[in-house]
Amino acid sequence: MENIFLFMQQIPAAFFILVFVVGLLVGSFLNVVIHRLPIIMQREFVVSAKEILEQELTDEEQKQTEEKFNLVVPRSRCPQCGHKITALENIPVISYLFLGGKCSECKTKISVRYPIIEFVTAALSVLVAVHFGVTWATLAGLFLTWCLIALTMIDFDTQLLPDSITQPLIWSGVLLSMYGVFGVDLKSSIYGAIFGYLSLWTVYHGFKILTGKEGMGYGDFKLLAALGAWMGWKMLPVIILFSSFVGAVVGITMVIVLGRDKNIPIPFGPYLAAAGFIAFLWGDKILTAYLGPGQFAG
Questions:
Q1: Which residues make Cβ contacts (< 8 Å) with residue 2, sequence separation at least 6?
Q2: Cα–Cα distance between 279 and 277 in angstroms, integer?
Q3: How far is Cα 197 from Cα 194, in angstroms, rounded to an integer?
Q4: Dihedral-angle region of residue 282 (phi above 0 means left; psi in -120 to 50 means alpha; beta otherwise)
Q5: Planar angle of CA 209, 218, 194, nearest 5 degrees
Q6: Is residue 244 very low, low, confident or very high in pLDDT (cuts 50, 70, 90)?
Q7: Peptide bond into 74 cis (omega under 30)
Q8: Does the pTM exceed 0.85?
Q9: Cβ contacts of 77 within 8 Å, gap of 6 or more
Q10: Of the N and C termini of the chain, which has fewer Cβ atoms inside 10 Å?
Q11: Is residue 110 within 8 Å of residue 102, measured between CB atoms?
Q12: In 3-state terms, what secondary structure has residue 84?
C-alpha cells in the first residue's frame, strides 16, 4: 500500500486518471442507487404500515416482498423490452455513446441523464483528488461527494433524503473529526451536527406555525447535520446562505419564467448538497476572504 501511495505521489497524473475511472464506475453504480433505493424504501414502508394496521398485502405487494430486489440484483434491464444489460453495454459513458443512446434490442431511447451522472461523478471526484492530493483525506472526500450526488438526485426525483445515506454521513463525519482528517476537531464536529439539525428544525416549525404548511422535510435537517459534522459548526452559515440563495433564485425563476405552480414543493436537498460541496472544498477560503486573514480557524 505504501509503495502505491509513493507511486501516485510521484506521478499525480496517474492518480487523477485512476480517480476519474473509479468515478465513472461509481457513477454507474449511483445510477442504480438513485433508481432503486426509493423503490426499496417504498416497499419496506408499505409492508411496515400494513403490519401496524393489521392489513393483508395485495397479491402484487406480496409478490414484491418475495422478489429479490436490492442494489445488486436483479441485473439492470431495459424497462421497455426487459433486455438484460450485458457487461459490454454497461461501460460508463462509452456504452451509451456506442449504442447511440438506445437499447440494443428494442432501440428505445435511453435517458441521457445516466451518462451525465457518470461523467459528473468522475469530474467531481477528480476535483476532490486535485484538492486533497494523494492522501487519506481524498478517500474520505470521495465518499462524501458520492453520497451528496446520490442524495441530490434522489431528492430531485422523489423529495426523499434516505436515512440510510444521511445517518452514516453524520457518524462518519464525527468519526473523522476524532482524527482531525479535515482540520475539524471533535467538539466542532458535534456542535456542527447539533446546530445543523436544530437550525433547520427551528425554521421548519416556525414556518409551520406561521403558515400551517411544511416548508421542508426532516431529511434536510439530517443532511445539514451531516455537513456540520464533516466541516464543523463554523461552516454552517456559509452552507445555509449559499443553499438558501440558490434555492430562492431557482424557485422564483421556475415560478415566474416557467410558470410552475408555487404550491408545488421544490426539494431543498440538492441546494444543500451543492452548497455543502462548495464549502467542503473552498469554505475556508470563502470565510477567510470575508472575515479577513487570521479570523477563521476550522
A1: none
A2: 5
A3: 5
A4: alpha
A5: 95
A6: confident
A7: yes
A8: yes
A9: 83, 84, 85
A10: N
A11: yes
A12: strand
